[in-house]
Amino acid sequence: MDTPNADYDSVWKQAIERYWPDFTELFLREAWGCRAAPEGMDQELDKCTRDSKLGLFRVDKLLRAPGADGQPCLWHLEIQVARQRGFVERMFVCQYRLYDHFHLPVRSIAILGDPSPTWTPNRFELCSGGTRLSFEFDIIKLRDFDERLAELLLSDNVFAWLTVAHLLTLRTRREPEDRMLVKGSLLTGLRSCGWEEQKFRDVFDLIDRMMRLPKVLQYMLEQQQEFFDGRQDMAWKYLWEERAEERGLQRGIAAGLEQGLQAGLQEGRQEGWQEGREEGREEGREEGREEGRLEGRMIAMRELLCAQLSQRFGQYDEDVDSRIGNATIQELEGWILAVVTAGTIDEVF
């Protein structure tokens, strides 16, 4: 059974448009903060993409948004999923043409989604006599995240999940059945992020489109996901949110009593107690929510692992079920990834 070609290009471009702050946070380690949302400028690209000798150069994504200094800037992004001769020259040509047309600083970023671990082009140089030109640009090498998949799966950053999907799509490009298992695991695991419904549906759709499957396997996967959506498997999400809120209230009351008594010694017992109680209640809610998120993530990971094991190996014994129930989050991470390549259930544990 042949595996259809993955849809990397449109998925990455659409995700960049919708979740730009997540992109800068994960890949550039820059918090977007209060800067204005990027303005898409793809329609302007036709004005500066043709050359009589070099041919057509297509910029994958062009955005206008403030730079780190708050000044107007163009962000030119290329999504490259295969090694390409002349790629650095292409980046250079796009950069100077964009500057020549818009007369704005241009930040060039290449997202390298190819399978090679060593291809890291990031510089173009020209030299003649005493004249030297050197152009460097940012690169995001997705293969660099290969050893961090478990960490990414614990994140609620959209691009953490897309990076995992991209890398696992590369790994399963000739194994459609394995891709179905991995894709099902990712789509099921998305429910642990606690996103609002529209964001969950967006990211679900992006991963679904990237990790393309033969029609028969896609139908089987859709039936599985409809089961998770329609049955009580979603109940854990609401349960841990409710429990987190309850824990937050309880901790808030206790913390409020303590802080209120301390404040009362300085500003009056009654006024200080009330103020401390309110402050403590809010602090307790936040602590409770954070603890609830972690507990909910572990519940989701256990559910995900159980679903993977059942689908891959059939019914398993009580010892395995007990190990899963008592596992740490680190153990669950390792087992979830091990299921993908294990030949037997013993190889998982």
Question: What is the rounded distance between the termini?
Answer: 30 Å
Largest sheet: 5 strands, mixed
Radius of gyration: 25 Å
Main sheet: strand order: 1-4-5-6-9
Structural class: alpha/beta
State the helix count.
13
Give the overall form. Answer: globular
The amount of helix comes to 55-70%
Number of domains: 2
Low-confidence spans: 52-59, 231-258
Q: Mean pLDDT, rounded to whole units?
A: 80
Tell me the series of helices and strands, N- to C-terminal: HHEEEEEHEEEEHHHHHHHHHH
Would you count the extended β strands for me?
Answer: 9
Oligomer: single chain
Q: Strand portion, in percent?
A: 5-15%
List descriptors.
349 residues; alpha/beta; 5-stranded mixed sheet; 58% helix
Walk me through what this model shows.
This protein is α/β, with parallel strands linked by helices and 349 residues long. It has 2 domains: 1-214, no CATH class; 234-344, no CATH class. The chain is built from 13 helices and 9 strands. The chain has helices at residues 9-18, 20-28, 87-102, 149-153, 158-171, 176-189, 197-210, 215-230, 235-267, 269-313, 318-325, 329-341, 345-348; strands at residues 39-40, 50-51, 55-56, 61-66, 72-80, 106-112, 123-128, 131-136, 138-141. The strands form 3 sheets. The chain has a 5-stranded mixed beta sheet with strand order 1-4-5-6-9, sandwiched between helices. A two-stranded antiparallel ribbon has the order 2-3. Strands 7-8 form a two-stranded antiparallel sheet. Helix 6 runs parallel beside helix 8 (215-230). The radius of gyration is 25 Å and the shape is globular. The two termini are 30 Å apart. Mean pLDDT is 80; it is low at 52-59 and 231-258.
